[in-house]
Each structure stands twice: as C-alpha cells, then as structure tokens.
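User: My advisor, Dr. K., asked me to get a structural model of this assembly before our group meeting. I'm new to this, so sorry if the format is off. These are the inputs:
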Amino acid sequence: MAEVEARGITKYFGEVKVLDNVNLATRKREFLVLLGPSGCGKTTLLRIIAGLEKPTRGEVLIGGREVTGLPPRARNIAMVFQSYALYPHMTVFENISFPLRAQHIRKDDIREKVAWAAGLFGIENLLKRKPRELSGGERQRVALARAMVRMPTVFLLDEPLSNLDAKLRASAREELQMFQKRIGITTIYVTHDQVEAMGLGNRIVVMDQGRVRQIGTPLQVYWDPADTFVATFVGSPPMNLVEQGEVLVGFRPEDFLPLEGREEDIERFQFEVSWVENLGAERLVYGNTGFQSRNGRVVSRLAPNIRVSLEAGKTYTFAVPRLGIKLFDRNTGTRLRGVSVGRG
Amino acid sequence: MEGVEQAPAFSLGYVWERERFLAAVMIAPAVLYIVALVGFPFILAILYSLSDATTGDPTLHLVGLRTFGIVLRDPVFLKALQNTFIFTLVSQILVLVLAKILALVLMEDFRGKRLVRFLILLPWTAPISLGAIGWLWIFDSIFSPMDWVARSLGLLGGSNALLGAESNLYWLGRPILAMAAVILVQTWRILPLATVILLAGLTGIPRDVLDAAQVDGASFWRRLFQVIMPMLLPIMSIAFLFGFVFTFTDMTVVYVLTRGGPVNSTQVLASWAFLKGIEAGDLAQGAAVALVVFPALAGVTALVLLLARRAEAS
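Assistant: The format is fine. Below is the predicted structure of the whole assembly, which you can bring to the meeting.
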C-alpha cells in the first residue's frame, strides 16, 4: 500500500491550469523528489497533498485512506517550508512542542519528545532561544525537529535547503538523507535543483507545466529520459540534441569524446570547436557538428584524464558510443524506442 | 589647470541640494501648524486653569491650583471621569474584538469582498457629526427604527414582551440605554480604522507561518490565540492606542446624541469641559477639566508604546 497516492490531480487557479491529471504513488519508506522548473506546479502538488490547497479534480490518499476533503490536521503529515516558517514569538522549545500541544499531549511526554527531536538534530542547546537569534542552518534544524517531533506518516519538504549557502547545503543534504534512512518515514521533497534531486531521491518525479514527464530512479531519469524536456532539464550541461532527418539525436556531453582511436560501436561527428571552458575538474568544449542543434550548440564534457589538446576554430573527429544515443520525435519531443540512428 | 581649481559659481539651484536646509524648509509648515494650533492653545489652557477667568471677564488673574480644587470636588466631574473610562474602555474593547473578526473575514477570498470592504470603511469617510445625527434618528424616542423592528418582532410593546410593555425603549432617555447608545456609535465610528490597521497587520504575517500552524495540527482557536494574536500584538496595541486617545478626548458623539444627559449619565470629561468652559462660560474650570485628562493620556500613550516596542523586540 502506498503511503501517499495522488490520483488524477488537476488544479486550476482561476483560468490557469497549474496541475494536469497528476498521478503518483510513493513506496514505503521512500524518498521521492518532485523536480521541475519554478512554476511547474510541484509546490502546488505538495500543498494539495498537505491539505493546504484543494484540487479542482482528483483525489489524495494517505495510508490508503481518502483525505481529499480533510483539513491538514486530519492527515498526520508534517511539512517543512522553504522559509522554515518558525513561529517568531516562540522559543525553539515552544516551536518544536507546538504540534504536540495541539494534540493535547501530557507535559512530561512533551518535554521528553522535544528532547528526543532536538537530540536528533543536535539543537539541545538552542531550546531557549528565539528564531531570530539563530543562523540559517540552525533554523532549518528547528524546522525539521518541529516536523519530526510527532512522528508523522509522511514528511513533506518544500525546498528546505534553498536558503542555505552552498557549503552548508551540501552537508545538510547528506544529513537529511542519513536521517531519512534512519527514521524511515516516507518523504516527498520538492526542489528545482537537479543536483539535490539526483543526490537525495530514491525516485524522481520530473514535472513541467503541471504535468508529470517521467517518474524514475535518478539513473533512469538521467540516462533514459522519457522526452526532450527531461533530457535537457536534468544534467548540466544538458543533453545535446541534434536534428538528423526526422529525429532528434540526443547524447550526454560526457559521452561525446574525441575519437582517439576508439573503434567500438560508435557514431562519429565532425566537431568544430568554438571555445573551451576549463573548470578544473572537467573541460567543457562548445562547438557544432554541422547539424542543427536544439540547444544552439553541442557540448562535450571531458574528464581531466582526457588530455587531448583542443583549440578553438579547429575541427576534430568526436564520437559517441551507440549505447549513449537516445532518439526523440522531432515534433513532440517524446522518446523513440527501438529505432536506430538513421543518418542521411 | 587654473580654471579647474576655481569653486563653481554660486547658484540658487544648489541650495535645494543641501539636505539640512531642505529638511528645515519642508518641516517648517508642520512645526508652525503645531505651535499655532496645539502649542498655543495648550499653554493658554494651562494659564486659564490656574486663573479664575470667565467669558465675561477673561483677564488672567492667577489663583494657583484653586480652580483644580473646585473642579475635583464637583460630583459631576467625578461622574464624568467614571463615564469617560466606561465609554472609552467598553467601546475600545468592542472595537478590537469586532475589528479582529472583520479583518479575519476580509483576509479570506469571497464574492463581494470589495463591496464589504467599502461598506466597512464608509463610516470613516462620513463627517462624524453627520453620522451622529443619523444615529440620533435611529435612537429617536418615537420614530426609532430599532424600536419599530423590536415591536414588529413582538419583543416590545406587548403586555408580556421581552423588552417591556411600553411602545418605545427611549434609548437616549434612560441612563443605561443612553450609555449603550453612545458606546455603540463610538464603536461604529472607530471600527473602520481599527479594521484597516489590523488588516495591514494580518497581511504582514507570513503565509507560511499560518500554513505551518495548520499542518502542525492547530485548530482555528489555537491558531488565533497562539500564533496570530501574539504576532499581531504590536499592531493591535497601536490600534488600541489610537482608538483610546481618540475616544477619551472626543465629545462629538456624546454632544450630538445626549449632551451628556440624561442627568449627566453619559457626561464625559471632554463634553463636561466644553459645557463648563464654553456654554457655562467658566473658562478656568473648563480648562482645568480638560487638563486633568492630559497626564493620564500621556501615561497611557507611553505605556502602550512601550508595550508595542517590547512585543516587537521579542
């Protein structure tokens, strides 16, 4: 049984359709990431699951029970907001204990549970402070502790790392994942950051314009995209897409390498280099292959162990292993399976 | 190089770019206004209150605090003092509760919201004396529409009707009903401003915090009393302060509706100062009555501002 299930969720804000027949179901103890550009409806979907918005059509099930019409407090869910949404007039202790007080739990039990939740996130020494006396990272921990304190069925997170600086974000990502594994609560996590999504998710739901484009593991989404949107949204730099006849030929920049005498099953391209960007851990080489490209140009990503010297303005022979090539319908952008590369 | 070192020629245009000068010029009308219309009458009132001046003999013959002694021993003064507190506190508590409800309603989206908001703000835009005259008709001893409604509902005029056997309630003729009437009108009058102030405060509470309280399982009342109200406290105290000072020092509603009657049962300090000082011509006593309120109001103002600042800081 799925912890959370969304069936045919459609949502209009006035005339604008923000969600279009969204279906998804979480698996037990899963870390499910909703990934998409801003405005794709992912936060609205999360708010509908939380009960903060009502869907125009469709239903939400939590623990197998239909909850579509029920208010948030009847759903036993916890949510962490992008802004953390701590109560500014309450101390950290009062913030964390708020959900317990709402459940009329005995004072001794409250103290015990708050101590437990604070211990989980290492904020025992902050309990008497007010939110404004905390740093960004500390606030985030308080918000997590407040969400966790009553052991919800589902844990909803709305871009909880986006207000942290880059360094803190990396360590918070790691902690969050370790923590989720240990506690084992089904988690739905919203983000527009594909690195976060790839790093955190058991599965990723890629959304665009209110529709689910693909649901799959990070590797499936990366290497086996369902359409050109997923192919170009996931990965940085995105998948190259060149037009060849009736199809779009897609390949990842890291698959697009100088020929260097490789003779396995490959597809060759004449690659005119326009400029080279040396980023230390990798080299990005931009140029064109003589075919019209959807992204305007074609990118090659070279690991530092590939030491071939490449100069702007010169043409080299590059190659992509045939396994790395994905074909898409030129008009609809959907993936074509079982079709081989047809070069004119 | 010679020409470059020369100071630029003096131009009148640059004068306006000196901030201190500009600031002084721009604030001058306000200072002038306050000195002429607040400062001068205030000092004059202090001088009058220390004298025995009347409208017949307005020469300043200083008699020290004697006038204050006379005023404070006057039973009408004590009655007016008591009435002022009842009038102000009851109306302001009603205003806060009702404004809070209205502001919460206006936060929600519903059809006709703009019309409701317009109607709520209407009393604020109408001149209060006009509004009060309208209410005078509503409370009329014979033609009161409220009485008419009560009579049609069978609540008034019958032999065992709930509100009595007489055909009218005589709102302004009975001490308790008269007080209720002036409080009602004052509440009606202050409510729009308080609603707007609280609405501004409510919109200032982050949406996420309210959503978080919902997800955390808090009921409506818990959200109201433990999240919304504490976060609204600074702005609520400002609304209260405005209404309090406004009501404490105002006589329009009382003067138009009851003139302090019946038998001083709705007399407040402001109306009593006016009746004593202007209508009865005893400038000294009128000034003294008006001034008695001043330290109390200054105290209340300081207290509420202090509370607001503390709530803001925490």
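One thing worth pointing out at the meeting: Chain B touches chain A through 18 residues (CB under 8 Å).

User: Perfect, thanks a lot.
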